[in-house]
Amino acid sequence: MLRIPCPWCGPREEIEFRYGGQAHLAYPDNPGSLSDAEWADFLFMRDNPKGVWAERWMHNAGCRRWFNVVRSTVDHRISASYPMGAARPPEGDA
Amino acid sequence: MTEAPDRYWRAAEPKAAYDVVIVGAGGHGLATAYYLAKNHGITDVCVVEKGWLGGGNMARNTTVIRSNYLWDESAAIYEHSLKLWEGLEEALEFDMQFSQRGVLHLVHDLGSRRSSMRLVNANLLNGIDAEWLDAQQVKEFCPIMNVSPDVRYPVIGGTLQRRGGIARHDKVAWAFATRASELGVDIVEHAEVTGFARGPEGAVTGVETSRGTIRANKVALVAAGHSSVLASMAGLRLPIQSRPLQALVSALYQPVLNCVVMSNAVHVYVSQADKGELVMGAGIDAYNSYAQRGSFHVIEHQMAAAVELFPMFAHARMLRSWGGIVDVSPDASPIIGPTGIPGLFINCGWGTGGFKATPASGWALAETIAMGEASALARPYALERFSTGALIDEHGAAGVAH
Question: What is d(CA B247, CA B324) in angstroms, rounded to the nearest whole number?
Answer without folding.
Answer: 8
